[in-house]
Protein backbone atom coordinates (compact mmCIF):
# COMPACT_ATOMS: atom_id res chain seq x y z
CA UNK A 1 0.00 0.00 0.00
CA UNK A 2 1.10 3.52 -0.62
CA UNK A 3 1.80 5.49 2.51
CA UNK A 4 -0.18 8.65 1.87
CA UNK A 5 0.49 10.40 5.19
CA UNK A 6 2.71 12.83 3.39
CA UNK A 7 1.02 15.28 1.07
CA UNK A 8 3.78 15.18 -1.50
CA UNK A 9 4.64 11.49 -1.65
CA UNK A 10 5.84 11.56 -5.24
CA UNK A 11 7.98 14.64 -4.70
CA UNK A 12 9.60 13.02 -1.68
CA UNK A 13 10.31 9.88 -3.66
CA UNK A 14 11.83 11.94 -6.44
CA UNK A 15 14.12 13.83 -4.08
CA UNK A 16 15.20 10.63 -2.31
CA UNK A 17 15.99 8.95 -5.60
CA UNK A 18 17.90 12.00 -6.82
CA UNK A 19 20.12 11.88 -3.75
CA UNK A 20 20.81 8.21 -4.46
CA UNK A 21 21.56 8.98 -8.09
CA UNK A 22 23.84 11.87 -7.26
CA UNK A 23 25.79 9.70 -4.84
CA UNK A 24 27.07 7.81 -7.87
CA UNK A 25 25.62 4.50 -6.74
CA UNK A 26 25.28 2.14 -9.68
CA UNK A 27 22.00 0.25 -9.67
CA UNK A 28 21.38 -2.99 -11.44
CA UNK A 29 18.39 -3.36 -13.69
CA UNK A 30 15.38 -4.49 -11.59
CA UNK A 31 13.78 -7.76 -12.58
CA UNK A 32 10.38 -6.09 -13.05
CA UNK A 33 11.64 -2.87 -14.64
CA UNK A 34 8.81 -0.82 -16.08
CA UNK A 35 9.56 -0.15 -19.75
CA UNK A 36 10.70 3.41 -20.50
CA UNK A 37 7.66 4.19 -22.67
CA UNK A 38 5.26 2.88 -20.00
CA UNK A 39 7.16 4.83 -17.33
CA UNK A 40 6.66 8.00 -19.38
CA UNK A 41 2.92 7.33 -19.54
CA UNK A 42 2.71 6.54 -15.81
CA UNK A 43 4.70 9.63 -14.79
CA UNK A 44 2.67 11.80 -17.15
CA UNK A 45 -0.50 10.69 -15.37
CA UNK A 46 1.15 11.13 -11.97
CA UNK A 47 2.18 14.69 -12.79
CA UNK A 48 -1.26 15.61 -14.13
CA UNK A 49 -3.10 14.13 -11.14
CA UNK A 50 -0.71 15.62 -8.58
CA UNK A 51 -1.08 19.04 -10.18
CA UNK A 52 -4.85 18.72 -9.98
CA UNK A 53 -4.63 17.74 -6.31
CA UNK A 54 -2.40 20.70 -5.50
CA UNK A 55 -5.01 23.11 -6.79
CA UNK A 56 -8.02 21.23 -5.42
CA UNK A 57 -10.38 23.16 -3.21
CA UNK A 58 -11.16 20.40 -0.70
CA UNK A 59 -7.82 19.88 1.09
CA UNK A 60 -9.39 17.62 3.75
CA UNK A 61 -9.81 14.80 1.21
CA UNK A 62 -6.44 15.20 -0.46
CA UNK A 63 -4.60 12.24 1.14
CA UNK A 64 -7.49 9.88 0.40
CA UNK A 65 -7.79 11.13 -3.17
CA UNK A 66 -4.05 10.82 -3.79
CA UNK A 67 -4.11 7.26 -2.48
CA UNK A 68 -6.98 6.42 -4.81
CA UNK A 69 -5.23 8.18 -7.68
CA UNK A 70 -2.01 6.21 -7.28
CA UNK A 71 -3.97 3.00 -6.89
CA UNK A 72 -5.90 3.79 -10.08
CA UNK A 73 -2.71 4.66 -12.01
CA UNK A 74 -0.94 1.49 -10.86
CA UNK A 75 -3.97 -0.67 -11.70
CA UNK A 76 -4.42 1.06 -15.05
CA UNK A 77 -0.87 0.22 -16.10
CA UNK A 78 -0.88 -3.19 -14.34
CA UNK A 79 2.07 -2.31 -12.12
CA UNK A 80 2.58 -2.31 -8.37
CA UNK A 81 4.16 0.15 -5.97
CA UNK A 82 7.36 -1.86 -5.53
CA UNK A 83 7.95 -2.13 -9.28
CA UNK A 84 7.26 1.59 -9.61
CA UNK A 85 9.74 2.48 -6.85
CA UNK A 86 12.49 0.20 -8.12
CA UNK A 87 11.98 1.47 -11.68
CA UNK A 88 12.14 5.08 -10.49
CA UNK A 89 15.39 4.35 -8.67
CA UNK A 90 16.81 2.66 -11.75
CA UNK A 91 15.91 5.49 -14.13
CA UNK A 92 17.06 8.16 -11.70
CA UNK A 93 20.46 6.49 -11.27
CA UNK A 94 21.41 8.18 -14.56
CA UNK A 95 20.44 11.86 -14.12
CA UNK A 96 21.04 12.75 -17.78
CA UNK A 97 18.86 9.91 -19.00
CA UNK A 98 16.22 10.78 -16.40
CA UNK A 99 16.23 14.37 -17.64
CA UNK A 100 15.55 13.08 -21.17
CA UNK A 101 12.75 10.93 -19.79
CA UNK A 102 11.22 13.98 -18.11
CA UNK A 103 11.58 15.97 -21.33
CA UNK A 104 9.35 13.33 -22.93
CA UNK A 105 6.88 13.65 -20.06
CA UNK A 106 6.70 17.42 -20.55
CA UNK A 107 6.06 16.87 -24.26
CA UNK A 108 3.23 14.42 -23.42
CA UNK A 109 1.66 16.84 -20.95
CA UNK A 110 1.86 19.64 -23.53
CA UNK A 111 0.25 17.40 -26.16
CA UNK A 112 -2.57 16.44 -23.77
CA UNK A 113 -3.10 20.10 -22.92
CA UNK A 114 -3.32 20.99 -26.63
CA UNK A 115 -5.84 18.17 -27.18
CA UNK A 116 -8.02 19.47 -24.34
CA UNK A 117 -7.90 23.02 -25.65
CA UNK A 118 -8.77 21.85 -29.17
CA UNK A 119 -11.78 19.82 -28.03
Structure summary:
The protein has 5 helices and no strands. It is an all-alpha fold and 119 residues long.
Kindly list the characteristics that best describe this protein:
disordered N terminus; globular; mainly alpha; 119 residues; 5 helices
Residue stretches low in confidence (pLDDT < 50, at least 5 long) are: 1-7
Q: What proportion strand?
A: under 5%
Percent helix, as a range, is over 70%
Q: Rg, please?
A: 15 Å
The backbone outline, from C-alpha atoms, is: globular
Let me know the number of strands. Answer: 0
Order of helices and strands: HHHHH
- Class inferred from helices and paired strands: mainly alpha
Largest sheet: none
Cα separation of the termini: 36 Å
Q: What's the overall average pLDDT, rounded?
A: 81
Query: How many individual helices?
Result: 5
Can you lay out the helices and strands and say which pair or pack?
Blueprint lengths: L8 H14 L13 H19 L7 H15 L4 H12 L2 H24 L1
Structure description:
With 119 residues, this protein is mostly helical. It is built from 5 helices and no strands. The longest helix is centred in the C-terminal third of the chain and has 24 residues, at 95-118. The radius of gyration is 15 Å and the shape is globular. The relative contact order is 0.18. Residues 1-7 have low confidence and may be disordered.
Amino acid sequence: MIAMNHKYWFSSLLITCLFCACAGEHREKPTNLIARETMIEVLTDVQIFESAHQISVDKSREAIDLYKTYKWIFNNYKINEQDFRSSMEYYMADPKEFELLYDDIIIRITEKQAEMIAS
